[in-house]
Amino acid sequence: MEKRLQLSRILHDILGKETGVYYQPPSNTRMEYPCILYNIDDVSTDHADNRPYRLTKRWLITVIDRDPDSKIWEKVLELPTASYVRSYPADDLNHHVINLHF
């Protein structure tokens, strides 16, 4: 959980506020925009001597903003190992999806 909290702090710093970063929010959560959603998307395991010795998590990060010219998603892309997946509009909101190995 330490790494997840570290990632959460980084995302809060990028967003520039103490609220608006959500880890696996329940469906009844009322989100404020702009916001960043994140969750584990994949885990790769390195093995040696038939035992796992390192887990690397891939996080799926979605930046949601009403502003079509928002630069928040570009700031997330500046993180090491970040890669752009796609963007799409939904419910008058702009979604930018990014993978991050962290």
Structure description:
It is elongated, with a radius of gyration of 15 Å. The protein has 102 residues and is of the alpha+beta class. The chain contains two helices and five strands. Strands 1-2-3-5-4 form a five-stranded mixed sheet. The mean pLDDT is 94.
Topology:
Layout: H1 2-15, E1 21-23, E2 35-48, E3 51-65, H2 72-77, E4 82-90, E5 93-101
Helix content: 10-25%
**Arithmetic mean of pLDDT:** 94
Number of E-state strands: 5
The largest pleated sheet is described as:
5 strands, mixed
Strand content: over 45%
CATH T-level topology: STM4215-like
Order of helical and strand elements: HEEEHEE
Q: What is the overall shape? A: elongated
CATH class group:
Alpha Beta
**Terminal CA distance:** 12 Å
Order of strands in the sheet with the most strands?
1-2-3-5-4
